[in-house]
Structures are given as structure tokens and as C-alpha cells.
Amino acid sequence: MNMLELIDKKKRNIALTEEEIQYMVTNYTNDEIPDYQMSSMLMAILINGMSKEETSWLTKAMVDSGDVIDLSSIEGFKVDKHSTGGIGDKISLLVAPILASLNIPVAKMSGRGLGITGGTVDKLESIDGFHVELSSEQFIQQVNKHKIAIVGQSGNLTPADKKLYALRDVTGTVDSIPLIAASIMSKKIASGADGIVLDVKCGKGAFMKDLAHASELAETMIGIGESLGRKVSVVITDMNQPLGHNIGNKLEVAESHDFLQNYQDSEQGLLDVTVAISSKMYQLATGVSDVEAKEKVLETLSSGAALTKFKEFIVAQGGDASDIVAKNTKHEIEVKSNHDGFVQLIDAEMIGKASLFVGAGRLTKADVLDFDSGIKLVSLTGQRVKKGDTLAVLYSNKDEIEASIQLIEEAYIITDVEPAKKNSILKIM
Q1: pTM of the predicted structure, to 2 decimals
Q2: Where are the alpha helices (DSSP H) in 79-233?
Q3: Active-site annotation, residues
């Protein structure tokens, strides 16, 4: 067996065997297959796809390439969630304390943001003193004691995925559903959870631009989960516009706190997505009905138990639970409406770029974040505005803010027609 033979097979759209996929992943991870050969294989996969069996075998090989976290010493059914990334996506900061307050253990490993989508770890690091690195013993001990821990991804978790993703990023092979699915699921399975809820974002501010492709990705990941002994549910959510009011690391922590303190006053899309994903996670862990799961989620929000757990979680990982408000920035610019009308749409991609340019996101992994920078959306979709009304506030410590201001202005589509209400939940699988 050699890599040239495997490239030729996939080039001619012949399915690879489990043994061949294991050989390919193992030897590439160990630097025994060069990048130029793996690049050819990735392009062949992009063009010809992979069968369900091939995708599951690829995922398993990626899991086996590094450490697999053993959570068996954590009591109860461990549940995790993953988002494919969106603008203002602070859902992990909300669902984790909600589930933990319902006595469902959440042992979560999260990533950092790159590009216009923010990372959960970055948001948590904006809290003074918060530790995103715990030893395995500390991680397990914290989940058993507090029912919640969120840490950065282990250095040796799915090393094959790290190598393959870096190569895909520079060879134009990112947008392959089998490769995306294997990348996501390998990390989740290696993280050790019993059940996984996947939040697949769909729309302009997401990688999956339409419902058909989002559904295909969801079906692929559910199939991988079933083949590898995990319970998996998918919630496909709208990402044509941002989630909530705040975009930016510390700003999103502050909005998360406010949501848990008084969820009835939150932005409707943020509420709908949080309740849907929390309910699915609770349902996976307990087997109760959709209705009962939703009732439990709303009950723990109303009682204040989820907010108490949020603060307990921050303190348990060394953070200052009072440090949840963004500091004043050098510039706080109100972006105002140029005419009367209704906010038809707020383009998530443009808002994401605007926040990136002021330091809330990274263009490269080496970029240093400004935790306090970002954008607060004052006027939301469906709202009537008059000329001169504030649409959004831009927070920046950088002096070069003209491009961000222009992007915010262009992101707001204002027309004379009141828009129909849109669902944030597109599909549940």
C-alpha cells in the first residue's frame, strides 16, 4: 500500500477501505506522507466526495491519532455542544450553565476564534483571572463538583485534524462536507461526551450558506455519531444576521450575564436558539419529551439558578465574577440611520468584519485581541427607525475605524416595508 495508489483510487471515485484510510491518516500525522500528496488526496475528496463509511472511518482515524479523553469518572450522562461558528454566537456561555444548573454535567473543550467568528475560549479569557487551561484531574474534579467546566482544546487532541485543517486552509479544500464533518466530529468524540448537540449555522454570516448544504452536513455528522456510538442531535439556526445585541469578547460575556439575569428582555433570536439547544441537550441526557425539556430550561432561567451557576463556574476557574462589563474604549462611535424606515436585515458577515477590524477577532493565529472592542446593535431587524436614530455603537481602541463604520452602515438594510418575522430555528434533526 502506498499513497500514490490511494490518490489514484479516489481520483477515479473508488471508495477507500478502512485500512487504507487509517494508513493515510497515521502516516500523514507522523510526517511520512508529504503535504503535496495529501493535498492531491484532499482535492480528490473535495471533487468526488466520500461514502458514509469512508467519512466515519476518516473520523475514527483522526480520533485515534491523539489523546482520547476518558470522562468515565464523571458521574452522569455527559453532554456537549458545538457550533459551526457565527457572529455574536455566545450560546456556549448560556447553555453550559443552564444544563449544569439542571444537574447535567457539561465537560466542554472549546476553541479560539479566527476570522469573523469569535471563540468561546477568547470570550472567557476576557474575564480577569479566568483559567482556560486545567489539568485532566482538575477538569474532571470541577465537573463532578460544579457540573461544568470549559477549557481550551488539549494540545494532543486529534493532531491529524490540526494538520489536515491547516493544509485544507491553504489548498482550497475547506468546503468539503465529509472533511468538515470529520473535522468537527473527531474533536467532539475525542473530547469524551456521551451526547452531542450540534448548532449548524446557516446564512451569510456562516460557512454553510443555504439550508440544503447545512442539512447535508447535519445528516453526515449524525451518521458519524451513530457509527461511533454517540447520541447526536442537530439544530440548524439562522446566521444571516447576528445573534443578540453584542459582538465582541467582553461585550458578549456581559450580554450573557444579562440574558441569564432576565431572559425575557433578550433579543428573540438569541432566546430561541438558546432554549432550543439547551432543550435538546437536556433531552439527550434524560430522554424526556421536547415539551418537558423546554419547561425545565425555562424554569431554571426564571428561578435564577442558571445565573447563579454561571457565576459559580467563573469563580471555580479562577475568574472574577464581577468583571463582566467591557471597559471604556478610546472611541465609542454611534452609527446613525440616514433615513426613515424598517430594519429589513443586518448583514452578519459585514458586522463580523467590522468587529474584526477593530480588534475583536483575528486575521492570523498570532493576532492579539482587544477584549473590550466590538459592536453593540441598538436597532434590530424589524424595528422602525427614523433618520438620525442610532443603529449601532462601535467600540474601539484603534484610531483606524472608518472602514468599520462604513461596514456597519452597509450592513443595515432599511426599507419602507416592514419585514416578515423570520425564524431563528430553521430545522431540528
Answers
A1: 0.92
A2: 91-101, 120-125, 136-146, 159-171, 177-190, 211-227
A3: 82, 161, 168, 183, 187
